[in-house]
Amino acid sequence: MGIIDFKSIKCKHCYKCVRNCEVKAVMIKDERAEIMEDKCILCGKCMKVCPQSAKTLISDLELVKGYIKAGIPAVISLAPSYMGLLPYESIGQINGALRKLGFFDVRETAEGAALVTAEYAGLLKEGKMENIITTCCPSVNDLIEIYYPSLIPYLAPVVSPMIAHGKMIKEEMGPEVKVVFLGPCIAKKKESQDSRHGEYIDAVLNFNDILRWLSEEDISIEDCEDIPFASFNPRVNRLYPVTNGVVNSVLAGQKEKDGYRKFYVHGSRNCIDLCESMVRGDIQGCFIEMNMCSGGCIKGPAVDTGGISRFKVKLDMEESIKREPVPEEELHEVMEALSFGKRFADRAPREKRPTEVQIQDILKQIGKTRPEDELNCGACGYSTCREKAVAVFQKKAELNMCIPFMNEKAESLSNLVMETSPNIVLIVDKDMKILEYSAVGEKYFGKNRQEALDMYLYELIDPSDFQWVYDSHQNIHGKKVTYGEYRFSTLQNIVYIEKEDVVLATFIDITRAEEEARQEYEKKLETIELAQKVIHKQMMVAQEIAGLLGETTAETKITLTKLCRSLLEEGSESEVR
Description:
By secondary structure, the protein is α/β, with parallel strands linked by helices. Among the domains are: 59-337, no CATH class; 421-509, 2-Layer Sandwich (Beta-Lactamase). Helices cover 43% and strands 14% of the residues. It is built from 21 helices and 16 strands. It has helices at residues 16-20, 45-49, 61-69, 82-85, 92-100, 110-126, 138-147, 161-173, 187-192, 207-216, 245-252, 268-279, 310-320, 328-337, 356-365, 385-393, 403-420, 441-445, 449-452, 464-472, 511-576, and strands at 4-6, 26-29, 32-35, 55-57, 74-78, 105-108, 132-133, 178-183, 203-206, 261-266, 286-291, 424-428, 434-437, 476-483, 488-497, 502-509. The strands form 5 sheets. The chain has a 5-stranded antiparallel sheet. Strands 6-5-8-9 form a 4-stranded parallel sheet, sandwiched between helices. Helix 6 (110-126) crosses helix 8 (161-173) and helix 15 (356-365) crosses helix 16. The chain is elongated.
């Protein structure tokens, strides 16, 4: 389709789009939202409510600029809501501003509305249809074709004012002319691409696009020349974008009373409620103006509502636009030359439905085993748990979209950790107030969880390391701390949790390991001392042996010396003889 651009990287699985989509045309896949194009009615609500701006409208602005740059004649079909949504002092200034951008001609879409009004008048006069639903709003048309195909016989077989106008311009100026619709609606882009009449509108812009373009070119509408619109005056048909505008346009030109009761419905929820009522057969003999946008087209999804009051716009337009019909003779030639009929078709998706057993199986997976477990809170976007289970079966939703179940699961896991962890777990805030305290803490500090949660950390232990971690946002890992008063030692990891602005700590009990290490150290000292004693004794023995060897050696030396002298003396006496 290429109309709403989806940036999945921004999607934060908040399910706000699912909750606000009345037809549930948004699926959740891999925890990210995706628009199901075959089910989307382009009401634009998901785009407006997305808190992360993950959904944006794809613009035709560059395409239109390309037409003008290439010298291709481009004609603006200007939706009548411009009267309440664009700044000007006189209507002709808008014509002048758009011509300065390079448009060949500027025409009012209300011209097409006048043709559509004439078609509706013909249907009312014929009186053959049980009910007549106006077909100006493409989102309403999609709603009925996709979700309420049994009501298709009630859709007026008439094109929208945009298509009627595009067809008229192409007939008048030639097929080579590019017709650019300018309005507040995003569904018009899909309608312009519909194969039933895709050749009449070449591009669709919204008022934000045109205001941005005017700003880029430094063009102020209020300063532009007042150039009157050259074509016929659409008169009362300029009321189409406000609630009851279509009905008023039809009534303005009515000469004879018909047999239909006339009323209008606006807002997606109201439109759906009316469709449900019509399916039940509660409504007969009515001409119904239906508009998907609450407040009419002046509150379209492509309207920047900042500073704009739809009530003031409605009042101003109704006051300034006279209830004058377009004379039949001004429309006769076009009505004779062109056909403005349209055939609508059943486009309802054929989806497989789960059995009751399959629904119950899905419900059990999210902890809903009894009817009272089905909270039907709507947090996931679906009104009931069973409806969500059906969506899971059809691959539109995921099990973890159930917020109460996931919260309960997280709490249960958190409680499991806090209750069964062999390590002490502490969480404190900026004031060192204890926010969380594991059950094992009672064994070490003598305080149970309830008592600890009423305490500050300094009432339990020295908070210095915790305070340093909080102030510096630097973590401490593997620090040994002994609490003499509690007679145990710990290995501590203390970290700052930025998202929650808290400090988390885990204490591992290493008392036994430290005691074993101390005992091992003492054994080593004893061994060293014993070794020192042995060495000392060996040295003493060595010294004694050395002393004895020294004495013996000296005595031997004296004896041998004496023996040598004696032998020498004996030798001398023999020589003398």
